[in-house]
Write a structure and sequence with these properties.
This protein is an alpha+beta fold. The chain has eleven helices and 15 strands.
Length: 355
């Protein structure tokens, strides 16, 4: 099987600086660049010569440098690197060392994917844990695909465990981690999820948008002069991450709600406006009925849009993460559902009185 590498320019392969410096001083042609890259990868990855080879117009009419990453029951797994794209980056003054590192990083990730296809061990977890991250999904909409996946549920939201395959253009792509791996790793779900949330927080730090500034930014997690206005507490602040995509996961980052509760001086109401962000209100300063109304209108608007687009044969891409209102308690340091899903009013009848 051949896997195409999606590369992100990174930093440096340690231990190969002298070789890289010699290459950087040369004005390399295209084929010379390919040869230099091949030799460097051969040494850095401890490959045999037959495990790395170059073919012109190999896949999608593109030149590829093929690297054998691992072997399983399906046979040898190859990574096909688009070397023409790398050479263009090199000519645009990306350093050779950063190109070496980015290629090596992608190949190491593919080797890690290979581990997921085989027998896991506690040692496997130590190699894979730095690539784990968490994504928020609507539990009902994704119920089938989550049956065998590691996840923790909060109301109608599932925080799902993934292993990162690519981190490009501020977008994470990954594969879900299966429940069976926890036993093979000899790890509890709680410990693994905690590790993954810390990773996610480092990959995509939390950001807020206040009413006064009306722009994203501010290091609100740091103890200092940062403060929220009366308007922020009443109208709510928007919470996301620097990547925005799936930024609603920031609600579940360690210490985020605790810090926002400290800034607001109260418990919190939490409204998930999408999978990308949430709104955080002061439980003391805000108007609960207004928040309920906002939630109801959001859900109705979403459902109406879905019906309209489906009836007209249009693709419905919007995703509603949650139809519930959440509450954060400072004393318990816990988030939970405050209000059930939007309810239809009804009247109760005493059956004995009817008869």
């Amino acid at each position: 099987m051949v896997r195409n590498c999606r590369l992100k320019i990174g930093c440096w392969i340690s231990g190969h600086r002298e070789t890289a410096e010699r290459i950087i001083t040369m004005k390399l042609g295209y084929l010379e660049f390919v040869e230099a890259l091949s030799k460097q990868l051969l040494n850095a990855l401890n490959l045999q010569e037959q495990q790395i080879f170059f073919k012109k117009k190999a896949i999608d009419n593109k030149d590829r440098l093929f690297v054998e990453t691992f072997e399983n029951l399906s046979g040898k797994q190859l990574c096909g690197i688009d070397v023409k794209d790398l050479y263009e980056r090199f000519m645009e003054e990306s350093s050779m060392e950063s190109i070496f590192y980015s290629v090596q990083e992608e190949i190491e990730k593919l080797k890690t994917v290979g581990m997921l296809e085989g027998k896991m061990t506690p040692d496997s977890y130590q190699k894979i844990k730095k690539y784990l991250f968490v994504k928020p999904l609507n539990k009902k909409e994704h119920s089938l695909e989550m049956e065998d996946a590691v996840h923790e549920d909060v109301g109608d939201i599932a925080c799902v465990l993934y292993m990162m395959l690519s981190n490009t253009n501020e977008c994470f792509t990954g594969i879900k981690i299966k429940n069976q791996y926890l036993e093979q790793w000899e790890m509890t779900k709680e410990a693994v999820m905690e590790e993954a949330l810390k990773n996610t927080c480092q990959m995509a730090p939390p950001l807020i948008c206040t009413n006064d500034e009306n722009k994203w930014g501010g290091s609100f997690m740091e103890n200092g002069a940062f403060c929220l206005s009366k308007s922020d507490k009443v109208m709510g602040v928007r919470l996301s991450t620097n990547t925005k995509e799936y930024g609603a996961i920031s609600v579940f980052y360690p210490g985020v709600l605790q810090r926002l509760a400290q800034l607001m001086g109260s418990d919190l109401y939490i409204l998930f406006t999408s999978g990308n962000e949430s709104k955080i209100y002061s439980a003391n300063e805000s108007n609960l009925e207004d928040i309920k109304t906002e939630l109801n209108e959001m859900v109705i608007e979403y459902r109406n849009a879905m019906v309209f687009k489906c009836r007209n044969g249009m693709v419905f891409e919007e995703k509603l993460l949650s139809e519930e209102l959440y509450y954060y308690s400072r004393i318990e340091d816990k988030i939970s559902v405050y209000m059930e899903k939007v309810k239809v009013n009804f009247t109760t009848v005493n059956l004995k009185e009817v008869h």
